[in-house]
Design goal:
It is a single chain. The protein has 440 residues and is an alpha/beta fold. The protein has one domain: Alpha/Beta hydrolase fold, catalytic domain (Rossmann fold, 3-Layer(aba) Sandwich). It is 28% helix and 16% strand. Strands 1-2-3-5-4-6-7-8-9 form a 9-stranded mixed sheet, with helices on both faces. The longest helix has 20 residues.
Length: 440
């Protein structure tokens, strides 16, 4: 056996054990004595000491006891028994809680953003696609900050097609280095999806870089849309106004505004895809904008698809300290007080119901708590069932690398790390085909 593979195998076996472990008890506050902290544990999992003193935990026996808020109980204590009651009473309550306490509400002065097609190629990818380059400018200035969207549509489509809208970190034009034919060449990791395969399957595919809506660092998180939304004399968003996750979600909805105007797009069949912090973003975007027909949240972890009350991997304390700009200012009050949050991950998933949601986690991504991601999807199930949809169909951990996609909630626990892997795309497309399948 190659010596380099031994740590990976040990990590994989331990991850499988942790995912299946039943323990839900123990201390939720891991605070060893101060001192030097290694960067990772023996299995390669990141170790971080938050300003609260909390140190990362990967032991299911120390996850701690917790009680999730019930998505089907109103704030006044009354139970939600009907779909109409959910849609008209409980869902609006939860959206407001997320707006005021977690991600932040959209400010009244949110800038204008609309898109124009600046370039069209009808013979892209050797005739396989129609490629459109869209450009929008933030605010009222036509020379304002630019947002670029690249849209590929099947060249031989006989009518409007469903589109997969992908928020990306680095990639602008997914076709710039795409293989000329499906499955061409040896696999190399790509941020974007298998473009030619998607087109051959009948999907359109669009990408937009998230930092073109707003920056994502301590130095530039108030430089684009959030800056333009400030009122005269205002130097930062109000405590309940949008963090950058809300801003990126707002941007995704503005791209959907354009897609609704394109006669080649079936705007009622647009799926939204995001990974990591963008996996958090797409869950919130789908919760706020019911026009998105389906959401794929990859490895979204803490304050995304994983239960925050579970003391495992990244925590509320870590997010509040390291990425404060991603959330409303009010979110800071929950550092060290996780159980005081009025919501948890199962609720943002449930806010997408009855529309389908697909979630993935990885064996080498314990920082994102894949077991917590699965349990959040399980806990969202009662809302899906109330609205007449099938949930995950099981409450115990799923078999490794075997997707659960029979219901409107889908989940895949993949072998590997923090990424959308080729096997994830395969499972996601099988899931999406049930809801977005293009006409023959």
């Amino acid at each position: 056996m190659n010596a380099k593979t031994i740590p990976f195998i040990l990590s994989l076996l331990l991850s499988i054990h942790l995912f299946a472990a039943p323990g839900e008890s123990g201390s939720a506050t891991n605070r060893p004595a101060p001192g030097a902290l290694p960067r990772a544990d023996a299995n390669g999992n990141p170790l971080r000491r938050a300003p609260t003193g909390h140190v990362s935990n990967y032991d299911e026996a120390k996850v701690g006891a917790y009680k999730l808020p019930d998505p089907l109980v109103l704030q006044n204590g009354q139970p939600v028994r009907t779909a109409d009651q959910w849609l008209k009473e409980r869902r609006p309550e939860l959206v407001k809680l997320y707006e005021s306490e977690i991600y932040g509400r959209m400010p009244e002065r949110a800038p204008k953003l609309s898109f124009t097609v600046v370039e069209t190629s009808t013979n892209a990818l050797d005739g396989m696609a129609v490629r459109k380059h869209l450009v929008g400018h933030l605010g009222n200035n036509p020379e304002g900050p630019a947002v670029n969207v690249f849209l590929y549509l099947p060249a031989k489509a006989q009518g409007p097609v469903p589109v997969l809208l992908h928020l990306t970190f680095f990639t602008s034009d997914p076709g710039a280095s795409a293989p000329a034919t499906p499955n061409a060449g040896r696999f190399r990791f790509r941020e974007t999806g298998p473009l030619t395969n998607l087109l051959a399957r009948g999907y359109g595919y669009a990408t937009v870089r998230y930092t073109e809506f707003e920056g994502d660092s301590a130095s530039n998180n108030l430089s684009l849309a959030r800056k333009l939304a400030l009122a005269p004399g205002q130097t930062k968003p109000a405590p309940d106004e949008w963090g950058t996750i809300s801003t990126w979600a707002w941007g995704a909805s503005r791209v959907l505004d354009y897609l609704e105007t394109d006669s080649a797009v079936d705007a009622k069949r647009v799926a939204l895809i995001g990974h990591s912090r963008l996996g958090k973003t797409v869950l919130w975007a789908g919760a706020r904008d019911p026009r998105f027909a389906l959401v794929y949240s990859s490895c979204a972890g803490e304050m995304g698809s994983a239960l925050a009350r579970r003391d495992y991997g990244e925590t509320v304390d870590d997010m509040a300290a390291n990425f404060p700009w991603q959330f409303a200012g009010n979110f800071q009050r929950y550092a060290g007080h996780w159980n005081d949050m009025p919501v948890d991950a199962h609720m943002v998933i449930a806010l997408n119901a009855p529309r389908p949601v697909f979630i993935t986690g990885g064996t080498q991504d314990q920082w994102a708590d894949p077991r917590g991601e699965f349990l959040a999807a399980v806990a969202a199930g009662p809302v899906y069932r109330l609205l007449g949809q099938k949930d995950l169909g099981q409450t115990d951990g799923p078999p490794l690398d075997q997707p659960l996609i029979a219901g409107a909630l889908g989940f895949l626990y993949h072998s590997g790390g923090h990424a959308i892997l080729p096997t994830d795309w395969q499972a996601f497309l099988a899931f999406a085909d049930r809801y977005l399948k293009p006409a023959p």
